[in-house]
Amino acid sequence: MKTAMETVLAKGALSHIRVLDLSRVLAGPWAGQILADLGAEVIKVERPGSGDDTRGWGPPYLKDRDGNDTHEAAYYLAANRGKKSVTIDITDPDGQELVRALAADADIVIENYKVGALARYRLGYEDVRAINPRVIYCSITGFGQDGPLAPLPGYDFIIQALGGLMSITGERDDLPGGGPQKVGIAFADLMTGMYSAVAMLAALAHRDVSGTGQHIDMALLDVQVASIANMNMNYLTSGRVPVRHGNAHANIVPYQVFAARDRAFVLAVGNDGQFAKLCNVAGHPEFALDERFATNASRVRNRETLIPLLEAVFRERDAQEWITPLERAGVPCGPINDIAQALDHPQVKHRGMRIDLPHPQAGSVPLVASPMKFSETPVTYRQAPPLLGEHTREILVRRLGRNSAEIDALAQRGVI
């Protein structure tokens, strides 16, 4: 017979945790989805009638059983797996009371409203803490709760530009297509979601010891600046502002895209031993003995000489004719897949990164799995991203004890 702890762990590491997700778009919902995958009960509060902005960010939309578009945009589906949707109008006093009641026994509250916006509805951190001192309240904004830009809305594109990422992303100005580029996904949003999840788990661990909740202040700009990582340190240690290298690496050579006879491929030589192996496979062992190229430091200094030599060699064969022997020799390299090819890759399939969950309109919805693999508390996929308000009645009855007449009256007034 299982103990209580064994029962909890079998349902997911966070199956004892309740999360109230007041966020929308990506950073907050991404953090909430991580917690849901780990077993937490995540209740997503949305606006009646329209819901999360991303529900309408299409096409593409999920198709129903007859092949027609539903109202579930692919963007929304990416960040809301495992949650329960409740529609509540937080501008209405009765709606505010419902949200406060849900927050009263929540372990975590996630919100990404403008600074001070929820306080107007008595749903800010101090309001919630007054009724739930153990709450972990995570606020996600573009610029944080204080500072000269705090009142402004935060959008990933702006943050990538302001935070320095676009200045080091893209081809050099002197080459075709040169100029700053944003990353192909909402990098600042996703990284903020990840950092927020880590912060909330750390706060939970602290609460286990202290019994005290706390306010977490997450800013997209802070995360973006922190995520520049080694490029920050390149600047701080040298005083030289990093520039764009396109698909090349600022600190490692050769570490970039090369054009083979039929198509391009990626080469990522991480040390001098790998470079010697590369030169042997390429039929030019003398490159590794040349003092200009023998060490990574010398290769970085002499990249303008080395790279054209390698480019000429790689154009002699098709990409796979290089990839196969290089992999066999232990030299990191690979093809440049599109998303369809990546999802169809044997390794990706083996790791179970594509899943399907039952969906009330489509029959099933295709999704990408969580990358987290646990030996004792596996990720749980309990349900597809919910329809707008799919669980409103269930949650109001089960969590708040409201009866059908009360719920009907709220619905008739448009509160839910």
The share of residues in extended strands comes to 15-25%
Mind describing the biggest β-sheet? 6 strands, parallel
Top-tier CATH class of the largest domain: Alpha Beta
Quaternary arrangement of the chains shown?
single chain
Number of strands: 13
CATH superfamily of the largest domain, please? Crotonobetainyl-coa:carnitine coa-transferase, domain 1
Low-confidence region ranges: 1-9
Computed Rg: 26 Å
- Total of helices: 18
Distance between the amino and carboxyl termini:
42 Å
What is the total domain count?
2
Q: Overall 3D geometry?
A: elongated
Q: Average pLDDT, to the nearest integer? A: 95
Residues in helix, % = 25-40%
Assign the structural class, choosing from mainly alpha, mainly beta, alpha/beta, alpha+beta, or little secondary structure: alpha/beta
Q: Can you name the CATH architecture of the largest domain?
A: 3-Layer(aba) Sandwich
The fold-level CATH name of the largest domain is Rossmann fold
Spatially, the strands of the biggest sheet line up as 5-2-1-6-7-8
Commentary on this structure:
The structure is a single chain. The strands form 4 sheets. Strands 5-2-1-6-7-8 form a 6-stranded parallel β-sheet, sandwiched between helices. The chain has a 3-stranded antiparallel β-sheet with strand order 9-10-11, covered by helices on one side. The chain has a two-stranded antiparallel ribbon with strand order 3-4. Strand 3 and strand 4 (69-73) form a beta hairpin. The protein is built from 18 helices and 13 strands. The chain has helices at 4-10, 27-37, 74-77, 93-104, 125-131, 156-162, 187-210, 220-226, 230-238, 272-282, 286-289, 296-301, 303-314, 319-329, 339-343, 346-350, 392-398, 404-412, and strands at 18-21, 41-46, 61-63, 69-73, 83-87, 108-111, 136-141, 214-219, 255-259, 264-268, 333-335, 354-359, 363-368. Residues 1-9 have low confidence and may be disordered. The longest helix is centred in the middle third of the chain and has 24 residues, at 187-210. It has 2 domains: 4-227 and 352-412, Rossmann fold, CATH 3.40.50; 255-343, 2-Layer Sandwich (formyl-coa transferase, domain 3), CATH 3.30.1540.10.
